[in-house]
Amino acid sequence: MSIQPGTGYTFTSSSQGTNFSIQTPWFPWLLLGDSFECSPYKVHDVVEVTEGESTFVTFEICPGTFNNQMPQVYDSVNEVWQYLNALADDANLVLDFASTSSSIVYLRVGPDATTSAFPPSAPSPTDPDDPYPRIYSTGGTLPTDSDTFGYVAIAKVNQVSAGVYTVEQYVTGSLWGDRLKTGTATAVYYYARI
């Protein structure tokens, strides 16, 4: 039986044995088109934007889920909360540096105030403190968990120099979370990557 060479591999046979060689089977396909790979919650394309006399830093984030629900982010251009997977092309997600050289992008989620469902099944369009999963940024430290909200850091964006930023990615997949509240103790939140 004879195996012939084909695309991406070679096959040789001699008195010293046989050799089957795979020549970089996936690499050429990665070079086609855009080589950026979007994974859940990946923070990317951090840039400074100037509008009028104001300069701010924006970012993009790949869609991911929390307990099979799509979180929301605040679009500062349209001034509305939008689902992460349905952002308009002109949406601006602004990083909060709050006079520091780094900003933490985090997911905030809490229980429904009426039903205690964790997380709520749908967001409130008018309540800014809605416990539905939402993504924020802070120039300070990650907020402390409470009975009302739990927080998980997604990434940290560091300003290296003027207009140059690096991203420390903490979450690399969609999340599943649970909330445990017993007696008068502060609620404890658990997260797992799925």
Can you give a write-up of this model?
This protein has 194 residues and is an all-beta fold. The chain has one domain. 2% of the residues lie in helices and 42% in strands. It has one helix at 27-30; strands at 9-14, 17-22, 43-51, 54-61, 72-75, 80-83, 93-94, 102-109, 134-138, 150-161, 164-169, 175-180, 188-193. The strands form four sheets. Strands 6-5-9-8-10-11 form a six-stranded mixed sheet, with no helix packed on it. Strands 3-4-7 form a three-stranded antiparallel sheet, with no helix packed on it. The protein has a two-stranded antiparallel sheet with strand order 1-2. A hairpin with a 4-residue loop joins strand 5 and strand 6 (80-83). The radius of gyration is 23 Å and the shape is extended. 21% of the residues are buried. Residues 25-33 have low confidence and may be disordered.
List keywords for this structure.
194 residues, six-stranded mixed β-sheet, three-stranded antiparallel β-sheet, 1 helix, 13 strands, 2% helix
Break the fold down into its secondary structure elements and pairings.
Blueprint: E1 9-14, E2 17-22, H1 27-30, E3 43-51, E4 54-61, E5 72-75, E6 80-83, E7 93-94, E8 102-109, E9 134-138, E10 150-161, E11 164-169, E12 175-180, E13 188-193
Parallel strand pairs: 5-9
Antiparallel strand pairs: 1-2, 3-4, 4-7, 5-6, 8-9, 8-10, 10-11, 12-13
